[in-house]
Amino acid sequence: MAGMKMLLLAAVLYLGGVKVAAGASRSEQCRSEGGSCVSAGSCRSPAVAASACEDGPAVCCNPSGLNAFARTLELDGFEIGLRVNPCSDRKCRKWYRGVWLTDPATCTDKKRLVNYCATTNQWCCAPPCTRKSRCQKKKGYCVPRKDMCPSGRTRRRLCGGRMCFCCLPEWPVPACPCSANRVSVCDPAGTYALAEDSCVQVHSPNYPYPYDNDAACSLSVVAPSFCRITVEYCQVALEKCPYDYVNVTDGVASNSYCGVVSPAAFTTAANTVAFSFFSDSSQVNRGFQASLSTSCFDCTQGPTYQVCTDTAVTTSTGGLINSPGYPGTYPTFVDCTLTISAPAGSTITFSYLSFELEDPPPTCGFDYFQIYDTSAPSATKYCGTTAPSFTASSTNSVTIRFSSDKSDVFSGFSICFVVV
User: Fold this and answer.
1) Residue that wins the pLDDT comparison between 221 and 53
2) Whole-angstrom Cα distance, residue 223 to residue 186?
């Protein structure tokens, strides 16, 4: 069977006048046929078929029809009946209810190439497989070849179309991290809050069972502003391009995936990622599932600022703020301020890793520390070893003031701050 398919593909390449060097990669062959390797899902024209390239999660977009034929051999159930004449008009028109075409690229609208006649250089294009309600009720989906059903359990009369089979569960489900938290891309809320040091699985409706037709929904996953989200794809098994697809974007990069692919994991540029899922009115597959986890900012690994040396800090993440000379003692006769500015709409949280100033009278008249929202100055002073009660701002700008007198210096302070 495989040998016959390779012979047919070689015949197509020969008849098409394309010369490909022996041992050429799939990417080289794609380009030699007049195609180009693009991100999965970007090949959206029904007249253009896509097969895998070596260039990462890329597919070959090729309008010549040669690549379309190669792809249908893998995905559309091309049948070679060794005991039946492949040029049989009865086989094509009566059995498959198909038509003969001179250009395989014109077999569009989900139709299937099922035979090739070398004598006439024509392809038999048959109607697509259709899922009957009984297949849907059994949580199955239609495949044009039995060996395309991962469970090995097929029923023939539950799908419309010749040589179409209903693939029934249970089929293997790839392992996916974070099984405790799951959310559908069609969740009515439309947004999922992903906490720091947490994770979640985002999946198509009904997964691991097939999704339904006519789906159009989206989900935004939002982590704390100081976090980034790592997206790992556990499975993408959708109808072939371009009919059903999932689009994933972090506001900077956007990729669409369709068919059966294994996209590479990535980390978002910001603290959000959005999934958009679409299925058309016919034919489905098992769906998709992705694992999302947070990678959050650690102030101890970020930049360190020093009061009196640094007077203004603009950041969208955070860092450490130390007193002059920390972890040694701070100097005498200090009186200076530092202002922290974060993006509009964000706030700033503080945790005090170390705090030791001169022991005060009740008014903190010797050495003292002040922290307040820049737009609303506060008269509250902190000193001694009692850390400030100010742990979160109400605006995106905070001012710190530090003052020491002429004697009795101590180790000062080290403060972690994070933009949220």
Assistant:
1) 221
2) 19
**What are the pLDDT digits (tens) for 37-59?**
765 445 544 334 445 566 555 66
Q: In whole angstroms, what is the distance from residue 204 CA to residue 213 CA?
A: 12
Residue 235, SS3 per DSSP? strand
In terms of Cα–Cα distance, which of 258, 256, 255 is closest to 238?
A: 258
Residue written as token pair 């239609």:
142
Q: Are 350 and 417 in contact (CB under 8 A)?
A: yes
| Pairing mode, strands 216-222 and 245-249 | unpaired
Q: Which residues, 6+ apart, have CB-to-CB distance to 38 below 8 Å? A: 58, 59, 61
pTM: 0.69
Distance of alpha carbon 249 from alpha carbon 347, whole angstroms: 25
Helix H or strand E encompassing 70: helix 66-75
Nearest in space to 261 (alpha carbons), one of 291, 240, 284, 282 = 240
CB neighbours of residue 76 within 10 Å: 25
Q: Quick: pLDDT tens for 363-377.
A: 898 999 999 999 988
What does each C-alpha distance from 38 to 110, 152, 235, 277, 341 come to in angstroms? Answer: 21, 33, 20, 20, 41
Distance CA 156, CA 135 (A): 10
Q: 208 preceded by cis ω (within 30°)?
A: yes
d(CA 148, CA 311): 65
| Interaxial angle between packed helices 66-75 and 2-15, expressed in degrees from 0 to 180 and rounded to the nearest 10 | 170
User: Rg of the chain's alpha carbons, rounded to an integer?
Assistant: 32
Give the residues across from 315 on adjacent strands: none
Q: What angle do CA 267, 271, 272 make, to 5 degrees?
A: 90
Instruction: Name the token pair of 394.
Output: 């109400």
Q: Which domains does the chain have, with CATH numbers?
A: 2-126 (no CATH), 130-167 (no CATH), 182-296 (2.60.120.290), 299-419 (2.60.120.290)
* Alpha-carbon gap, residue 27 to 316, rounded angstroms: 41
φ/ψ region of 406 (left if φ > 0, alpha if ψ in -120 to 50, else beta) reads alpha
CA gap 295, 380 in Å, rounded? 36
